[in-house]
Amino acid sequence: MREQYEHETQYHVNIEYETRSHYDKITGIDLPKLLVFKCSVSDTLHIDLGERSYPIRFVADLPKALATAGLAPGGRKGSDVLLTDAVLQASQVALLDAVFAGVPRLVLPAGEKTKTLEFFGRVLDFLAAQGIARGGVLWVVGGGVMGDLGGFAAASYLRGISHVQIPTTLLAMVDSSIGGKTGVNLSAGKNLVGAFHHPRAVFICPQFLNTLPPREFAAGMAEVIKYGLLGDAALFAQLENHVLQPDSRDMLPIIRRCCELKAEIVQADERETAAVGGRALLNLGHTFGHAIEQATNFTAYLHGEAVAVGLAGAARLSARLGLLGPADVQRVDQVVKAHSLPARLRTPLPTAALMAAMQHDKKVRAGKLRFVVLPRLGEAATRDEVDPTLVEAVWRELGAT
Ligand code: NAD
To answer: Do residues 236 and 374 lie in contact, with contact meaning Cβ atoms separated by under 8 Å?
Structure first.
């Protein structure tokens, strides 16, 4: 019975997965053929941005997928270099050695402290020392830190070379590796210098999640929950019904769904210039989240954890604006908590400090705070000119003093 159930579930996942892909026009093929077909073709989502278009490939076997795509890195001098961090170098050494044999490798310290101008300079120097020319490729294997740093180096070196993103955290798979935002932090604030520079391709291999620490996985789940809230009520309901784990059968289809949602938004508003809505919707929960990160000096919360509290804040603000009801707010809190994330501040922070930190957000326009709110669960909108007293009240609900 259990076996049959698993069998059917697998079929369901595969069919669901296929119908969402660009093979969905295939009809009239019996099930076994469809499954055989799926096994022989790696699934791809195309980001359509004219001459800056690129594929996101969802792969089970990274070396094979790179070879099939005709993109396997070579050891020829000046053609390819690899950028990764020390944690990945230790935890994924076999895979890195298999894929990048003979490719010069720059291994940098792991973590946000590496996303600086100093390390940006180190990557540029390494590219130059390896004689990388215009046709060279920078391979970036890592989470959002390596992705943002490497992407910015690729944008700047020789005024732009190609890079390929191989994201290894859940956050990077569903968010930072797609969309072309690259950059580093300044002491004045996060992501204050950077460039739009899209990768040549993104390869998403969920196998990397097997070594990701649970806390980092949970942090990535904040972005997954965000996508459900801002654009897919069915995804949100799915997360309510099943707590997602790295080895969940739904993992790959859900990562893919998040990428689709991000792709749709980025394609419509590549440089975040839309007057309302647009790419800014991806900041759901982030105005609150960034303020928490800043007020705690980026030490107490992972980015995703701060965003999780921010999602609870966005839901409460939406309720105070008459958009959501109390039951909706509770649903948001429950999904956040079920995925091992905080829905309130862990320790109280002063409301005044959080309000001041919000004023430093890059999204502030002419001194006015701009929020992403939820007209309903599964739909987001931007809202300017929000009364600050409402925001203060939300902070207090979240545990601020
Ligand atoms: P991260 O890159 O620091 O990775 C988190 C930790 O997990 C690191 O210690 C890393 O070494 C380790 N790690 C990564 N993959 C692993 C694996 N498979 N197994 C074991 N350990 C692994 O952090 P992150 O959460 O991936 O990214 C955060 C960064 O992303 C922030 O700097 C943020 O600003 C940026 N970001 C950028 C965008 C964008 O659009 N460019 C979007 C969202 C976030």
So the answer is: no
Q: How many A from CA of 257 to the centre of ligand 1?
A: 20
Q: Tally the domains of the chain.
A: 3
Range of the domain at 200: 43-212
The verdict on 364 and 262 lying in the same domain is yes
181 has catalytic annotation: yes
The strand pair at 201-204 and 105-108 is best described as: unpaired
| Last-in-domain residue among 212, 244, 265 | 212
Same domain assignment for residues 199 and 273: no
Annotation marks residue 264 as catalytic: no
Catalytic residue status for 397: no
> Is 262 a residue of the active site?
yes
Closest Cα to atom 35 of ligand 1: 144
Atom of ligand 1 nearest to the CA of 146: 2
* pLDDT of residue 10 exceeding 60: no
Residue whose CA is at the smallest distance from ligand 1 atom 17? 212
> Is the distance from CB of 94 to CB of 88 less than 8 angstroms?
no
Give pLDDT tens digits for 323-350. Answer: 999 999 999 999 999 999 999 999 999 9
Cα–Cα nearest to 383, from 295, 336, 324, 302: 324
Ligand 1 atom nearest to 223, measured from its CA: 43
The answer to whether residues 9 and 131 belong to one domain is no
Do 250 and 381 share a domain, yes or no? yes
Question: Alpha-carbon distance 294 to 314, whole Å?
Answer: 18
Provide the CATH number for the domain around residue 123: 3.40.50.1970
pLDDT tens across 131-182, in order?
999 999 999 999 999 999 999 999 999 999 999 999 999 999 999 999 999 9
